[in-house]
Write a structure and sequence with these properties.
With about 425 residues, this protein is of the alpha/beta class. About 40% of the residues lie in helices and about 15% in strands. It is built from 14 helices and twelve strands. The strands form two sheets. Strands 2-3-1-4-5-6 form a six-stranded mixed β-sheet, with helices on both faces. It is elongated, with a radius of gyration of 24 Å. Bound molecules: 6-O-phosphono-beta-D-fructofuranose (F6P).
Amino acid sequence: MHTPHTPKLALVMVGLPARGKSYIARKLARYLCWLGHPTEVFNVGSYRRERLGPAQTEDWFSPQNTEGERLRMEVAEAALADMLKWMREAVGIGIYDATNSTKERRRMVQRRCEEEGVRVLFIESICNDRRIIDATVRETKLHSPDYAGMEPDDAVKDFLKRIAHYEKVYETLDDDDGSYIQLVDVGRRVVINQLHGYLPSRLVFFLMNMHITPRPIWLTRHGESEYNVSGLIGGDSPLSERGVQYARALAAFMKDRTKATPTVWTSTMRRTMETARAMGCPTVAWKALDEIDAGVCDGKSYQDIERDYPDEFTARRSDKFRYRYPRGESYEDVIQRLDSIIIELERQREPVLVVGHQAVLRALYAYLMDIAADECPHLSIPLHTVIQLTPTAYGCREERFRLEPESIAQEPTSSR
Ligand code: F6P
């Protein structure tokens, strides 16, 4: 499998202020980057603050304020020009994060993109649920540099007036806007118009499963296996005695952490299923969570590989992310097959525990923590450690719990 083809595509956000546009933009960027498509968000609000300072009060956003209108257009054009320049150089997907709330503005964006041979897909976020809007204003806008040093209640009042200015001129997407995805009340309803191509369809899938209910995700490798003890990779060996102890410790830890029964996912390999069994709750075994397939090197130690396949060993060292074992997989391949797991993880509203393997958990962790995909082969995911990730407004909070009282044998590594 080669690095996926990245289409010349601009994702253009549409929506009133405080409708989660930036949240969606960043989530899409993280997902696309992880899938191997360079993606960058161009946020017009940041351009405004950078060029004009953060001092604009609500009246600056009024459609009657001609000077404000002129300056807003200026920063919008600057951000757009930078995005198109970046897309030309990086061959990536640009996300244009602004309200783009009038047809006239969208036509301007459309025209500029067309001149560069870039296709536009509008993504509109509509939200009429007052509670969600208020929560968004309080959680994100109050921390914005726009309101630094202002009393929270005054800041909320100012921001609500800013929204009202946009409401006066807001035009929702319709057929003449071309290709779009419209999300109503965080995925309660999704409208799709003139959507073409594989990647845009995949984005619909992703967006349909996205929600904002916070819940923890736990990642852990299986308990130590017989193969880990002998320093061999791959295989399908059972747990060692220490591995069985870890399975018990993990079950006790989970009981302590959560009253609700978590959803427990394993791979189809013995060592993960044996680890989860101690929890005594239903588990789901996913083939997609199986460890990286080491092909002809499966069942060997790193020293064996260096001796028997010196060229392979060197090739893997020089590009561990793209290197594919003969008749096996690369990290890049692993990410592609984990796409369905990410969609499913995004969809789950209950706490989830993933009992997996080193390479697979590195790839999942890179997505969840927004780490460049090609860095993932070098991430530290030790045995007998639970990683707890709790989604926050724009990322995840991480805690690690080492559940092994006595020190565990040093694991062999295939370093850089
Ligand atoms: O050693 C345990 C293991 O899960 C192997 O089965 C797998 O091949 C390896 O880790 C992945 O780690 P790396 O990519 O660093 O070789």
